[in-house]
Structure formats: C-alpha cells, structure tokens
Design brief:
It comes from Streptomyces rhizosphaericus. Pfam families: DAO (PF01266). The protein has about 400 residues and is of the alpha/beta class. It has nine helices and 18 strands. The strands form three sheets. Strands 1, 2, 8, 9, 10, 11, 17 and 18 form an eight-stranded mixed sheet that branches. The longest helix has 16 residues.
Amino acid sequence: MSSSAFRTVPASADVVIVGGGVMGASTAFHLAEAGVTNIVVVERGELGCGSSGKPIGGVRAQFSDPLNIELGSRSLRAYREFGHRPGADIRLDTVGYLFLLDSARQTSDFEAAVQLQNSLGVPSRMIAPEEARRLCPYLSTDGLVAAAYSPADGHARPGLVVQGYARAAAGAGVTIATHTTVSGLDTAGDRVVGVHTSHGRIACATVICAAGAWSARIGEMAGVNLPVQPVKRQLAFTAPITPPAPRVPFTIDFSSTAYFHNSDDGLLLGMADPDQEDGFDTTWTPEWLELFRTVARRRAPALAGLETTGGWAGLYEVTPDHNALIGRSAELPNFLYAAGFSGHGFLQAPAVGEVMRDLYLEREPFTDMSPLSADRFHHGAETRPEAHVV
C-alpha cells in the first residue's frame, strides 16, 4: 500500500473518514468488509502519525465500566485473530495486565470491578502481593495491599495494526489520502455535504470523525460539540538489559500511574505527569523520567537506575469523564464520531470499527452505545466516569 500523497482527492465519496489512525483505519476496514464502497480516508500526515504512532499499546478488558469491558473484550478477541482477519502480524504479546494496589479503598474498588469483569467473561482475579511479585520479580511488596491480574491482556504494536487494517481497506478499494489536511466542512440544512481539504473538496453523503486529539476542531467545523482535550503523555526505553529481562505483565502502579513492560531487548517505562497542561505539544522532555524513578525506587527499585536510550511523547484525547465519544450527531445525522478515548482507543479500536460500521448501516451494534453519545455532556444525562484510567 502506497502512502504517497494524492495530488487531488476524489470529487465525491459516500463516506469520508477524517483521521488515519487506528480508529479511522479500523472503521474503513469494517465498512469495506461489509461492502460499502466509495470511502475516502483523509489523514493530514502519514497513517498512524497521531496518537496511534506510539510504539507499544496495551490491550486489556480490565475496566470498571461494563461498556469499556465489552469493548475491550471484543477487541482482544479480534487482536488474537488479526493474523487471519484482516491478516497481519501485530506482535501481540499476551503477558497479562497487573494493577498494583496500595490502599483498602483501591482494593475494594478493584474487587467490585473484577466481579463485574468475571460476569462478562473476563478471567481477571485479585491476587496477593507475593503472587504479584512472582509474576513480576522487579516488585517490592512494601506497602502493597493487593493486585488485580488478568492473564488475557497484554500489548501489541499500534503501527502494525493501522497498516494491517489500512492495507486490507485499500485492497477493498478504499482511497487513503495521506498528507491531506481537512480545512472545513460544508453543511446544508441538517446534513454535511462536503469536506474541504488541502487537495480539493470532496462532496459526501456521510462524514465520520476519527481525528483523535484533533476531533474537537473537526466537530467545530460542523457545529458539533465534541469535548476532547489533548494531553501529553511520555514514555522511555531502557538500553538492552543483560541478562535479558524476565517476561513480565504490563505492570501498573495504580496510585502513581507508573507502568512498565518488556519492549524488544529492554523495558518500556511510562507515567502520567499530574501537572501536565493540556495542549498539542509532543516534545519529549527527559526530565519527566525523574517522576518515574521516584516511584520506581519504592515500587520496583531495580528499575530506578536503568539507563534509558530515548523516548517518545504523544497525545491522549481526553473527555471530562475519561470515556469515549461514539455516536451519531443529533443535529447532523450524517456526521458520525468515534473520539475521546482517553488513552483506551487502541485497545478498543477493533470493536469500535464494528460499531461505526453498524451505526453507518443503521443496524444494532453488538451492545447499546447510546451512553457514549457526546450529548451526555450537555443534556444533563448521567456521565460514566471510568476508574481504571492510567
């Protein structure tokens, strides 16, 4: 599949998908597989150059909200079968996810979530600190009260997933217009009728916004409120470790959000900076590593002194309740959106691609998605705060 820029875009399309990350690629694949033709994916850079560009993405079904559990579970199944459908090696490593808990309150919250997860078929369980250390020998159990573990979770490579979906979509006739920026949307009455891009206008019957951290801007062009804020997140890679690092779960110190897992011949280290301001800045600043090291000295002392060889900064696309925006605009019924995943987009992308296909085809998705409508923030509807946020 060529990712060379189109000099012009097609003059018209049935569906224009804004955003060539994992959400846009999954949506394009699922639509094309269902026989929808005349689809254009518009991406301002290379495919997966936004939030999906991160080197390793966790995949899990351990959440506190039933909808997130369902989206995570269904996506995990799709990732396990990705080699057959659409057909690509995504370097899925099912090492499990291990949440480390250091208070009675966290423990009772996770116990309730594990019960809910188990009722929905997720094989998670609560474990004692000693078992957590057997799973992850780096740990110090000082101050640990318990841990939550699911062996079915793990991590994969988002870039490979984007390419796998996009290659299959292109093979089914989807036009992928990279290096093409959306500059405006035309509306007439209650419809979106055109998309203005840096390579020409596309008359269209449907627009699907999958623009990640930039989705609020796309929504504004159509007069649709998508409350998504960009927040920088950073990670680092260690130098190769000898003897080789043990194979460990994706391990998260829940109180601090510090996490680590295997990456090639070393480890990947990450953590949210609680003082990080909103914005589109993706400059990697090695100083944040001191935050990680401070936590590591207490929780995984051997990691605190490891040499790092660089890192990466990307954007979370955060909503007020840390849950996604998935649905169809009430004001513009042919404007659909899948955005605001608050760090969980990659792990939910296969299931969300199915949902977007079904919303477009006006058929019932596998579960009721109406609680994730963007309207929940301005109709006084109940929001659904997700607790298992990193």
